[in-house]
Amino acid sequence: MNIFVTFMFVLFFSNCKHGHGIMKNLFVILRKTVICFTFLLLTAGLVSSAVTINNQEKESGLRAGVARIDITPALPVKLYGYSSRKNYSEGVHDNLFARAVVLENGGRHLVMISSDLGSYSGEVFTIIKNRIIERFRLEESEIFLTTIHSHSSPVLTLNSETGDPNNILYTEQLIEKLISVTGEALSNLRPADIALGRGYSPVGSNRREMRPDGSIALGRNPYGPADKEVLVMKIAASDGSHMAALFNYATHSTSLGPANMQVSGDILGISEQFVEKILGNNVISPAFAGASGNIDPWYRVLPGFNEEPGWIPEPVLLGTLLGVEVVHVFRNTKELKAGGEIKTLTETLDLPGRKREGDPEGQSKTVPVRITAARVGDAAFIGFNLEMLTELGMAIKEASPFEYTFVITHCNGASGYISPAELYKEGGYEVTSSRFEIGSAETLVRKALKMLYQLCD
Ligand SMILES: [Zn+2]
User: Which residues are placed with Cβ below 5 angstroms of ligand 1, an ion?
Assistant: First the structure.
């Protein structure tokens, strides 16, 4: 009888929302069955063991630690993101930071590192990941090493043949700082609770603009799909003091274009700093870029910060607008809950590479894609070493069994753009520069959903 009661309560109190379609219908039926049986058991006085189980679930041993470190380059550096830009940076508009949030429960860790940078190439990522894993004895699935994709941040390189010496020095120092910030967050672990909230922001816009000849160019497509959701995880110590406002939003950090020579975190970096200024210095606000392959800020690739008297420079305007929504959601999210157990998974999926004219034997290699998934209570994080187009992130969120699914891109490496099959016939920058064969994105979405369901077990 105890096993039966346990089964029903696990179903009833499960944190997963159990999605859509067949799973949803099945869950509704099961849920109704659970409610009926629970009522019968209550009246029969048989529920005491089940109540004990529920209480045990609420007595979570979640602990959290946070840390932030300044990673602004001390020397002029080559800036990331536009191959046309050849010169060194000229000054700093806003400082760059790396922020670490570590969650731990029962020995299982989730290490979320957000950095105000462009991207970690496969080579640089592997070196950093191995250093962190060895130093702190973590498992590969426990790490989400991410960037906010700022195009006004240093190029990362350790290649002495192709890399600029200033950028190599910067990257070497960055690695030590990332280890330091991770260690500080791990050493700060203390009992904590989490809360989740969602808002919406118009800062990001679809950028696939159709020209009169029918071709697709980078620009603004205001009626095109764009994921406007702002997800916020609030983390507070058990005494109620706030520790972090972690947020997830889908936009490129490209309000600044190749003519800008100042270092900046751009949209997401400025949002993080706004939130921290408002919520106080003890709260860190790491941003995680959502599925934003085809999403640019509303004002995009500008030549710099407009200094006209009375003008609010667009990166500041949009970064602040997004930050204001994060603060609204943070403040409206009052119900702190014990975080629940942590589960993590990582898998490498070999997707078919693009067949290009002139490929030897007409064959193309596969391209490895890394997916990292984690669950903390009601929230799931799913990270990709990709620039996913927004439609793919929205599809994952829609079908996810979790109430809150943080889709995180630029996570654990960089394998470039991946587009839904229906956009291949339209073309455009994200499609033509992609390394993946048509249909790869759909395989990726199915795999991601399978992993999210695995986290519900
Ligand atoms: Zn990009």
Answer: 387
